[in-house]
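User: Look at the shape:
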Amino acid sequence: WTGSIARTNIVGMLVQGSTGNVIGGLSATPVTRNVISGNRNTGIDLAGTDNLVQGNYIGLNAAGTAAIVAPDTNPNGVVVRATRNTKGGTTAAARNVISGFSVGSGIFITLVASNNTVSGNYIGTTADGLSNVSNSNGVLVVGTQNRIGEAVAGGGNLISGNTTGIRITSNNTPGNTVVNNVIGLDPSGATLGNSIGIDTSGPFTLIGGSAAFTRNVIAGNGTGARVVTGAEFTRIEGNTFGFGPAGEVRPNGTAIGLASVNSVTIGGLAAGAGNIIANSTNAGVQMLFGANNA
């Protein structure tokens, strides 16, 4: 076994009606790591609750350097069809690397899935985070009240090198949160952009926040955050656009783009709610049509 050639299953792992399972483990070595790659439909299909997926390579070879994807398919890395599942964790050992789904999504949280957490992962990169192995969508969210990133130390994801980093789609998806992530950079702070960092049409989405460990660093992307029809009452607050974590200049094309959407709030009056928006090569904030945005 070389861990570099696809030996295709339809689904790598199916968890259906089963709870409290652990897929992978806390190890920075191959001892407990699964390599779940080259499958025709889905790497991991979670249709049970309270499961934990951590420490795996999903979509990559055993070295974590390149994709293994079955040919002529539209696969996804992890598909979530239930509640209260966690992908990743707050330590490097818990990190999943989910990459190489160039015509699918690294993580797909479906319409029936709610209250799931995605934290501490590398999505769209090699295992070291320094090169892109793109997903079409790093994370695709169609369910409600899911968390992309956690507001704790180590709880953010690195989501870089994808066509779209995070896509929240349809007006049936209220109340999702995106916090504490690095979107468009590598771990050193160098540019490893997504074409679009965050793209939401889901209402009541929260991107960032004013509390500790809620700020997203969104830099090096074609568009940092795109908010479109359906995403009414979205709030974008406390984020940094156009700088790296250590203050490196890392431009987005357009930092925040609003299109035909109403009642979106950018920033706020609370301490820490203001965004830093700088170094954009196009617009810092662009509003096309829509009304009652602030």
